[in-house]
Each structure stands twice: as structure tokens, then as C-alpha cells.
């Protein structure tokens, strides 16, 4: 193997299956969702193995773990620096590339004197589908008030 994240990573058949599931996924899956997909390919793999392997893969920068307060972690096949939008209504998560976010890293380093090596920005809002449902509910008079 070459130097880098995979250099000290002993790849087993089970780890390869789990990584493949994450790499083929559209979107950002939870460990439980990944486990369901993995079980379709190898019914012998236990949930604990999937869970531990996901964290191991993230430690070796082969995938990215996204944590959102008290919600289940999500796993992203993209390991390059990018940001996310998160719907506070349905929980949807999408990649979004925001070049100006890199400027924020430099400003944070300058103002804190930290040697910042990375950052992750999450924009929280309401996705188009939830907005449409809300508009429909409001038009029908079934919306809620705060």
C-alpha cells in the first residue's frame, strides 16, 4: 500500500463491504441504514462490526462522520473539504460547496491564534420539500402557529 490513510489500515472483507456500501450510497446514511444495506450483501456481519468499522474508516479518513447534536451520526463518502445543509424539519442532509467558508477558517485562526487544520460548516434551515408541505398546510388552514 501507499502512504496515506490506507497505509496503516488492514482491510478485511467485512470492512471492504462496509466501505463499498458507503461509497455507493446516495446521501448521508446512518449506521443503521448502512447496516441494513450491508446485511443484504453479507448476512453474517453484525451491527457492532458495522458501527465500529464506520468509526475506524472515519479515523483513517476513508469516510467522513457527521454529527448533529442528539441525532444519529451520518456518514459521508466525500472526505474532501465541503459543507452541508441540514433540514431542521425532516433531517435531510446535503453537500454544498461554499468557497467563502474557507475564508472563515483563516479568520478563525487569525482571531484565536489556533493552528486550525480543518473545519466543517453546517447550514441549518428548511428544505424545499418541507417548505412546500408547510405552504400547502398553511393554504389549507392546517398549519400550526408558533
Amount of beta strand: 5-15%
Percent helix, as a range, is 40-55%
Average pLDDT number: 88
Q: Structural class, from secondary structure content? A: alpha+beta
What coarse outline follows from CA principal-axis ratios?
A: flat
SSE order, as H and E?
A: HEHHEEEEHEH
Task: Indicate how many domains the architecture comprises.
Answer: 2
- Count helical runs: 5
Characterization of the model:
With 146 residues, this protein is of the alpha+beta class. The chain has 2 domains: 1-79, Orthogonal Bundle (Arc Repressor Mutant, subunit A); 80-146, Ferric-uptake regulator, C-terminal dimerisarion domain (Dna Ligase, domain 1). It has 5 helices and 6 strands; from the N terminus they run αβααββββαβα. It has helices at residues 13-24, 31-41, 47-59, 101-112, 128-139; strands at 29-30, 64-66, 74-76, 83-87, 93-96, 122-125. The strands form 2 sheets. Strands 1-3-2 form a 3-stranded antiparallel β-sheet. A 3-stranded mixed β-sheet has the order 5-4-6, with no helix packed on it. A hairpin with a 7-residue loop joins β2 and β3 (74-76).
Give the SSE map.
Layout: H1 13-24, E1 29-30, H2 31-41, H3 47-59, E2 64-66, E3 74-76, E4 83-87, E5 93-96, H4 101-112, E6 122-125, H5 128-139
Parallel strand pairs: 4-6
Antiparallel strand pairs: 1-3, 2-3, 4-5
Amino acid at each position: 500500500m501507499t502512504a496515506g490513510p490506507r497505509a496503516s489500515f488492514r482491510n478485511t472483507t467485512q470492512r471492504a463491504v462496509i466501505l463499498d456500501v458507503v461509497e455507493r450510497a446516495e446521501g448521508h446514511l446512518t449506521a443503521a441504514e448502512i447496516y441494513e444495506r450491508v446485511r443484504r450483501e453479507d448476512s453474517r456481519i453484525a451491527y457492532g462490526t458495522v458501527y465500529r468499522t464506520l468509526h475506524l474508516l472515519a479515523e483513517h479518513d476513508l469516510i467522513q462522520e457527521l454529527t448533529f447534536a442528539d441525532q444519529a451520526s451520518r456518514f459521508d463518502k466525500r472526505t474532501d473539504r465541503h459543507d452541508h445543509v441540514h433540514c431542521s424539519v425532516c433531517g435531510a442532509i446535503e453537500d454544498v460547496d461554499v468557497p467563502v467558508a474557507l475564508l472563515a477558517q483563516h479568520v478563525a485562526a487569525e482571531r484565536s491564534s489556533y493552528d486550525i487544520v480543518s473545519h466543517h460548516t453546517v447550514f441549518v434551515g428548511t428544505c424545499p420539500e418541507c417548505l412546500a408541505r408547510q405552504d400547502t398546510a398553511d393554504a389549507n388552514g392546517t398549519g400550526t402557529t408558533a
